[in-house]
Specification:
Radius of gyration: 21 Å
Strand content: 25-35%
Strand order of the largest sheet: 1-2-3-5-4
Largest sheet: 5 strands, mixed, barrel
Order of helices and strands: HEEEEE
Number of domains: 2
Length: 143
Amino acid sequence: MNHNTRFLAVATLALTSAHGLGQGAMGGNRNDTGPRGQPPKVENVATAAPVIKAGEQVTLKGKLKGGLVAIGGETTGWQLAYAKDKGAATLEVDMQAIKDAESLDGAEVTITGSIFSKQYVERGAVLILKAATVVASATKKGP
């Protein structure tokens, strides 16, 4: 086995382990199947937390973070981390309409605005919340 083949084998093993591939039919933990080898029972996606869609008006509460950068400048520079029914989520935020937006960096906020989709070259389609109003909560800003 030459160096390139060995590297490929190690990289493939690392990827399959990290993403749960290589389970079931490829050996390892067989808990990914139901009775008699049937696929596992999957939660009905329709009953999961609501999905945010382009064109919707929303109000979200969470922690606002600014100063973000991305390859090719493919970001608004702002992100809201908020809670959903099934855990945490993040959403990119367009803060252009907000005066003194920098003062809100790191704050717990309530943002009202509309969702739109932007097509980036590298990132593809990304949902963005175009902030109309941002209100900081009474709690202190985090680090």
